[in-house]
């Protein structure tokens, strides 16, 4: 039996997801916050594929493809917003966006 | 054979930790790419070759290149040559190089035929099975994903245009009448 216990794979996905959450909470640089979100999406995709492999069904991989498409769209919009923010505020610090116009 | 999986998992976790604790964005991106490659290795080992390839091509390739482009756009005002020289000092490469070297060693080990005869999750789910499901039962979801990507592209184009320059820092405090 050379099979990985599915729990170990899920543990890896869980650790990666936790690292992503930690990154979003701790970092104040907008680019690093976006990277943390990518890490979380990737960990979720890993969990999907592991679950699909556990039940020997392709559905997990199909879901991963959708996560991939969503991540691509999200990064495109997110990075544009970051660039726009940098043009206005002159910094990447998320705390610089604490004041509103009104 | 389990060692291969655990090695890739440790590389992934280490690289992610290092990626999110860097102060320099480009260093972080380097480690993040290593982390994605390690996850691709895990996909390959558990018998999901299509997803492993897509992880490398789309995640580590396309999405990370988008990040690099954005970073380049952001530092365009500064002295970019000095910036570049600062980034490419020798020590920067050591960490990612060691971690990637581990992954390459694993890959060679598998490709040269010492690897597991069967995928570690028991059964391999190849591109054909995924494709049949994707364009069969999930065809509607594929259409929705394409709409999402179109919306993303249009949205990014719209948001990325140059607005009349208003800087948060320069704006005078306004009083309510």
Describe it for me?
Chain A is mainly alpha-helical and 102 residues long. Chain A has helices spanning 6-26, 30-54, 59-89. In chain A, α1 runs antiparallel to α2. The radius of gyration of chain A is 17 Å and the shape is elongated. The termini of chain A are far apart. Helix content of chain B is 73%, strand content 0%. The longest helix of chain B has 26 residues, at 49-74. With 177 residues, chain B is mostly helical. Chain B has helices at residues 2-21, 25-45, 49-74, 80-87, 90-114, 127-134, 139-159. The chains are: A mainly alpha (102), B mainly alpha (177). Chains A and B meet through α1, α2 and α3 of A and α1, α2, α3, α6 and α7 of B.
Distance from first to last alpha carbon of chain B: 73 Å
Q: Can you write the helix and strand succession of chain B as a string?
A: HHHHHHH
What is the CA-atom radius of gyration of chain A, in angstroms?
17 Å
Give the CA-CA distance, first to last residue of chain A: 65 Å
Q: Mean pLDDT score of chain B, rounded? A: 83
Structure, briefly:
With 102 residues, chain A is mainly alpha-helical. Chain A is built from 3 helices and no strands.
Topology (SSEs and partners):
The complex is a heterodimer of chains A (102) and B (177).
Chain A (H helix, E strand, L loop, with lengths): L5 H21 L3 H25 L4 H31 L13
Helix pairs in contact in A: 1-2, 2-3
Chain B lengths: L1 H20 L3 H21 L3 H26 L5 H8 L2 H25 L12 H8 L4 H21 L18
Helix pairs in contact in B: 1-2, 1-5, 2-3, 2-5
List keywords for this structure.
heterodimer; A: 102 residues; mainly alpha; 3 helices; B: 177 residues; 0% strand; flat
